[in-house]
Structures are given as C-alpha cells and as structure tokens.
C-alpha cells in the first residue's frame, strides 16, 4: 500500500468494525425476540469489538502516522501561492520564466 493505511483502513479498524457489527446484529435479533439476556450479550460483543480494536492498535496493526514529506509540503506551498511550481525557473533578467521539461506523476 502506498503510505501504509489511510482513513482508518487498517486491520485493527476492520476487525473492530466487524466484531461491533456482529454484536449489533445479535443485540437487534434478541431485541426483536424480547430476550433481555441476548440484548446484553450483544452489548458485551460490541464492547469486546472496541477492546479488540484498541489491542490490535497497540500491537501495531492500527493506522500508522505518516510524516509530511518534502513533496507534500512543496505542493501545499504552490497551492497557497507562496512558492513557484516545480519545473519553472526564473530566466535571465527581464525575460519570462520558461518551464523546464515537465515530469508526469505525483
């Protein structure tokens, strides 16, 4: 994967969401059947899903912090208008800047 995980797409997050979803289904089914112990069991499963997510995150399966690279910082400056875009150099005195060979990519 490009920069590890983004937007919570990590094994820890997916595992927690799956367990919480199962707990919700169990609790909902027992709510319809009017079985209070089943509803409590669903709540316990939901709590275990949250705990499992935190444990997996602690084990290193959560979202990693990705430091901002120099390229991201440079792109942000160009968007803000505080720097020249890459590939554009100032020409000789009194001439317009000419673009260098353009590169394709990010």
Order of helices and strands: HHHEE
Unreliable sequence segments: none
Radius of gyration: 26 Å
Hey, roughly how much beta strand do the residues contain?
under 5%
Q: Count of DSSP E strands?
A: 2
The assigned structural class equals mainly alpha
Q: Average pLDDT value?
A: 77
Estimate the helix proportion, in percent: 55-70%
Taking the alpha carbons of the first and last residues, their distance comes to 15 Å
Largest beta-sheet details: 2 strands, antiparallel
Query: What is the overall number of helices?
Result: 3
Q: What is the overall silhouette?
A: elongated
Number of domains: 2
Strand arrangement across the biggest beta sheet = 1-2
Pfam families: DUF6704
InterPro entries: DUF6704 (IPR046550)
Keywords: Membrane, Transmembrane, Transmembrane helix
Region (Disordered): 83-106
Topology:
Layout: H1 11-32, H2 36-61, H3 70-80, E1 88-89, E2 98-99
């Amino acid at each position: 994967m490009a920069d590890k995980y983004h937007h919570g797409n990590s094994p820890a997050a997916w595992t927690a969401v799956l367990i919480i979803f199962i707990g919700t289904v169990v609790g909902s089914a027992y709510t319809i059947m009017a079985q209070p112990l089943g509803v409590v069991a669903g709540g316990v499963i939901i709590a275990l899903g949250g705990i499992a997510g935190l444990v997996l995150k602690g084990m290193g399966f959560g979202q990693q912090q990705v430091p901002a690279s120099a390229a991201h910082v440079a792109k942000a400056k160009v968007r803000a208008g505080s720097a020249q875009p890459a590939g554009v150099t100032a020409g000789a005195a009194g001439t317009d800047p000419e673009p260098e060979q353009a590169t394709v990519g990010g």
